[in-house]
Amino acid sequence: MRGDAAIEALAKESPGWADRLHRVNIDVTDPLSVTAAKDAVSTLCRARRCPLYGIVNNAGVGLASDDMEAVLDVNTLGVKRVCDAFIPLLPDSGRVVNVSSASGPVFVSQCTPQQQLFFQDSCATWNDIQRLLDDVQLHAGDAGYFRALGLGEPNPYGLSKACVNLYTLVLAREHPRLCINACTPGYIETDLTRPQAAQRGATPAELGMKAPQCGTVATLFLLMGAPSGSGHYYGSDAKRSPMDRYRAPGSPEFGSS
Ligand SMILES: NC(=O)c1ccc[n+]([C@@H]2O[C@H](COP(=O)([O-])OP(=O)(O)OC[C@H]3O[C@@H](n4cnc5c(N)ncnc54)[C@H](OP(=O)(O)O)[C@@H]3O)[C@@H](O)[C@H]2O)c1
C-alpha cells in the first residue's frame, strides 16, 4: 500500500519520526469511512494527549472527467464530509487547508456576472452550494441547462473547485477561531495530470508540469506559516489570489494594492 511505503520511506530518512506516523484509511465519498477515520484520529490524539493540529483536504479526481456526480462527490462533498467530521477535533487556531485548483477561479471567470458574485458571496451558506449542486446533478449531461444557469460550458472539475473555494469562505465565517484557507498546488506532475501529457504526446515537463515537491509550497504555508486571514484562496506561490479569475504565480498578490 502506498501509505505504508510512504511511512517506511519517512521513517528510514528520520528514525525519530517512526512512532509519529500512522496510516489511516479514508474514502471521502463514504460517510462511514469518514467517521471511522475520524474515530481513529481521535483515539490517536487522546493516546498522545495532544489535539489535532490541522486538516488538509487533498483528495481530488477528474481533471478531464465529464462524470459530474463522481467528481463533485470527491472534490466538493468529500471536503464537506471531512470538515464536518474532523473540525470538532481542532483546537482554537487550528488549521484547515482545502487543496483546490486554479480551475476554480478560471471556471468562475467564465460564468455570468451574477454567478461570479455567487461564487464569492461572503454571506453564502452550505445550503446555497448544495442547492446549486443538486440542480446541476439533476440536469447532468444537459449542456444547455448548465449554460442557462450562467455556468459556461459544463466542467465538473472547475465547478467542483469553485465550490470548494466558496465553501472555504463559508467555513471561515462559521469558524472564526480557526484558520481556514484554500490553495492550488500549481501544475504538478502526478497521477492526475500525467494522462494529459500522454494524450498530447508530450512529456510532463514540456507541458509545464513541475515536480511533486513543488506542489506543496502553498499547502505548507497555509498549514504552518502565517497567512494574513481566513477564508481566502492562494496561488501555488503561496500568495493570496482572487476567486473569480486566474492570477499567475509571481504576479502581484491579490488585495496588495
Ligand atoms: N496535479 C496538479 O497539477 C493539480 C493542479 C491543481 C489542483 N490539484 C489538486 O491537488 C490535489 C491532489 O491531486 P494530485 O495532483 O496529487 O492527484 P493524484 O496524484 O491523483 O492524487 C489524488 C489523491 O486523491 C486521493 N483520492 C481520490 N479519491 C479519493 C477518495 N474517494 N477518498 C480519499 N482519497 C481519495 C487519491 O488516493 P489514492 O492514491 O488512494 O487513490 C490520491 O492520494 C487534488 O485535490 C487535485 O484536484 C492538482
Percentage beta strand: 5-15%
Arithmetic mean pLDDT: 96
- Could you say how many structural domains there are in total? 2
Which CATH architecture of the largest domain would you pick? 3-Layer(aba) Sandwich
Give the low-confidence spans. Answer: none
Secondary structure category: alpha/beta
Q: Whole-Å distance between the termini?
A: 48 Å
Order of helices and strands: HHEHHEHHHHHEHHEE
Total strands:
5
- Which CATH first-tier class of the largest domain would you pick? Alpha Beta
The major sheet is characterized as: 5 strands, mixed
Roughly how much helix do the residues carry, as a percent range? 40-55%
Question: Which strand order spans the largest sheet, edge to edge or round the barrel?
Answer: 1-2-3-4-5
The CATH homologous superfamily of the largest domain is named: NAD(P)-binding Rossmann-like Domain
CATH domain topology of the largest domain: Rossmann fold
**Cα radius of gyration in angstroms:** 18 Å
Summarize the structure in words:
The protein is an alpha/beta fold and 257 residues long. The chain has two domains: 1-50, no CATH class; 54-241, 3-Layer(aba) Sandwich (Rossmann fold), CATH 3.40.50. The protein is built from eleven helices and five strands; from the N terminus they run ααβααβαααααβααββ. It has a five-stranded mixed β-sheet, with helices on both faces. Helix 2 runs parallel beside helix 4. The chain is globular and about 55 Å long. The model has no long low-confidence stretch (mean pLDDT 96).
